[in-house]
């Protein structure tokens, strides 16, 4: 199972993403969701996830602020935002994927399928 966190301040975005993942991907196990940087950071430390979907703009900072608080991480990272301007910043954090909101389900499927393949082959 691929332990997965969704960190996004928009409850509808969290729900839609969680439902899409649960419906389409058996090996993906959503171990938690968070609505802010500090909550997300606590969940990362608690669960040591394999995959994180991380929103950029949240009430207590940005997803990049969260990443700055980690000395390193092993999880696959998908950065989510409605602003394309964040893409170059996401790339500097070695995000495997940058996804514009609203999410393109075909792009989501392609990304998650690739993550699943990597875990199955490792």
Summarize the structure in words:
The structure is a single chain. With 122 residues, the chain is of the alpha/beta class. It is built from five helices and seven strands. The strands form two sheets. The chain has a five-stranded parallel beta sheet with strand order 2-1-3-6-7, with helices on both faces. The two termini are 13 Å apart. The mean pLDDT is 96.
Which helices and strands occur, and which strands form pairs?
Elements: E1 2-7, H1 11-24, E2 28-34, H2 37-47, E3 51-55, E4 57-58, E5 61-62, H3 63-68, E6 76-81, H4 87-92, E7 97-100, H5 105-121
Parallel strand pairs: 1-2, 1-3, 3-6, 6-7
Antiparallel strand pairs: 4-5
Extended strand count: 7
β-strand percent reads: 25-35%
Mean pLDDT, to the nearest integer, reads: 96
What is the end-to-end distance?
A: 13 Å
Helix count, DSSP H or I runs of 4 or more residues: 5
Share in helix: 40-55%
The 3D shape can be described as: globular
Q: Strands across the major sheet, in which order? A: 2-1-3-6-7
Radius of gyration: 13 Å
Residue runs with pLDDT of under 50 for 5 or more positions:
none
Oligomer: single chain
Q: What's the story with the biggest beta sheet?
A: 5 strands, parallel
Tell me the structural class. alpha/beta
SSE order: EHEHEEEHEHEH
